[in-house]
Amino acid sequence: MSGGTGSNIRQIRTSRYGEPEQLRLALDEPPKKRGLPWFWLLAGCLVVIAFAAVYTRNDVANVFKPKPGAPLSLAGHQVQVIDGDTIRINGQDRDISLVGFDAPETSRASCDVEREHGYTAMRRLRSIVDTAELQLQTVPCACASNAEGGDTCSQNRSCGILRANGWDVGERLIAEGLAVRYVCTGTSCPAPRRTWCDAAR
User: Are the C-beta atoms of 97 and 179 separated by less than 8 Å?
Assistant: First the structure.
């Protein structure tokens, strides 16, 4: 009889203290993490792609567009050399006339000697552009008020200063005899100095 009673007591104690212990352990167990459904991941990727497309269409096209007065760093492959004193930035529809100097003409040369010097200056500017760190700073053209960008102002060009490794490329070409100094003041420029054909006579 005593054996049966002791067995019952143990069962009661086990039941009484065991169940709360199991409950405590269950409460202490960290909650299981749910996996993120694949379609939410896909939706997030599509949103990112959509924003990137909008940014590319509206903003990236203007990244290389120089802002007045703000130097713009450029790589050589971003610059097209039109002639010895004219460039164009890839993606832009207007040429940029480099100020402070005048290089011989190529397509509009007044004589064969000027044309030859013009192509020499163009090739030299191209070699500088290809091998240097570039900075372009746009400046106002010497035009009448509200005329910049029109046919009557700088042949429908913008104006700027191109520096290669910190040096004005115009000063380089002048020093090498491939250009002459040509400085405009206010809203007008002096008549071009056609020294190239004069020197050939």
Answer: no
